[in-house]
Write a structure and sequence with these properties.
Number of helices: 10
Strand content: 15-25%
Shape: globular
Distance between the termini: 42 Å
Order of helices and strands: EHEHEHEHHHEHEHEEEEHEH
Radius of gyration: 20 Å
Number of strands: 11
Helix content: 25-40%
Largest sheet: 6 strands, parallel
Strand order of the largest sheet: 1-11-8-7-5-6
Bound molecules: NADP nicotinamide-adenine-dinucleotide phosphate
Length: 302
């Protein structure tokens, strides 16, 4: 069997087109656009490249976009003041602080200072609580788990009654996606198991999964014989396993691999995400969706 490929790059384009159309309509009817501020502290190349991609996407969608590039030496107090400035700015609907922050700044304090109604990353404890309650309470599902759920739904995979096994229990992927899939409602209603490093017999759990979501950060962790024939496999892992020269740019680029042995797994699974080009492109897409949602909540049109 050769699995159907669930391509994040294609789903991203579908969703971005939907967002752009909605932004245009709201602008025409209500005279407002979503506003997103990205706060970058320091000059880490990885952070700069993530923020640049977010800015590019926001611009493409017609958002108002503000970049706050701050020096590595900014004090915690000044960073908090900057966040408060945007908490009070009605033209801003999403505040994004690029992590990691320098060591002298307490990440938790900074993230908790963001107005939960502008927390489009969905990391504020109030939004984590809303996600746990589910249903209408949910405002901003965290972006990577929201992207995973969207891919499963758009690939036409039945979630109701499905056995979902999540490998990994991090706060940004494993725990929230498990929580989302167990909720009552469309795209969910699943029976969920979460496994981690203390789980006895990882293989036996994976073998039961109709939907296997792997977010461990261990290349090749999931063996092909752990996959139930016909299962949907979502590989969240992004692991650098080497370097190569890009044919396009002639520059050195990382060779990436997921947590699943893709070549063998695709012969057993019913559908599977590739790495790269699977879950990766969905995160920024869902960040844009959350920013649009934030505007709609504010306008009372959500
Ligand atoms: P994390 O915080 O390091 O958590 C990894 C989880 O996997 C932990 O719960 C850990 O268990 C579990 N785990 C690790 N090795 C395991 C093993 N051998 N057997 C069973 N469980 C194991 O990682 P994360 O932030 O969730 O990210 C996971 C992967 O997804 C990484 O490769 C990351 O780069 C990728 N990622 C991709 C995107 C994207 O594409 N947009 C976004 C976020 C993350 P314990 O809790 O017991 O230690």
């Amino acid at each position: 069997m050769t699995a159907k490929l669930i391509k994040g790059t294609e789903i991203r384009e579908e969703i971005l087109e939907e967002i752009a159309a909605e932004v245009k309509e709201i602008k025409e009817k209500n005279g407002v656009v979503p506003g997103l501020v990205t706060i970058l502290v320091g000059e880490s190349p990885a952070s700069i490249s993530y923020v640049t991609l977010k800015i590019k996407t926001a611009n493409r969608l017609g958002f108002k976009e503000i970049q706050e590039n701050q020096p590595e030496t900014i004090s915690e107090e000044d960073l908090l003041a900057l966040i408060n400035k945007y908490n009070d700015d009605d033209s801003i609907h999403g505040i994004l602080v690029q992590l990691p922050l320098p060591k002298h700044i307490d990440d938790k304090k900074i993230l908790n200072a963001i107005d939960p109604d502008k927390d489009v990353d969905g990391f504020h404890p109030i939004n984590v609580g809303r996600l746990m309650i589910g249903g209408d309470e949910v405002k901003f599902p965290p972006c990577t788990p929201a992207g995973i759920q969207e891919m499963i739904v758009r690939a036409g995979v039945e979630t109701s009654g499905a056995e979902v096994v999540v490998v990994g229990r991090s706060n940004i992927v494993g725990k929230p996606i498990a929580n989302m899939m167990v909720q009552k409602g469309p795209g969910a209603n699943s029976t969920v198991t979460v496994v981690h490093t203390r789980t006895r017999d990882l293989a036996s759990h994976c073998k039961r999964a109709d939907i296997l979501i792997v977010a461990a950060g261990v290349p090749g962790l999931v063996k092909p014989e752990w996959i139930k024939p016909g299962a949907c496999v979502i590989d969240v892992g992004v692991n650098r396993i080497g370097e190569k020269i890009s044919e396009k740019t002639g520059k050195k680029i990382a060779i990436l691999s997921g947590d699943v042995d893709f070549d063998a797994a695709k012969e057993i699974a019913g559908s599977i995400t590739p790495v790269p080009g699977g879950v990766g492109p969905m995160t920024i897409t869902m960040l844009m969706k959350n920013t649009l949602k934030s505007l709609k909540f504010r306008q009372g049109i959500a």
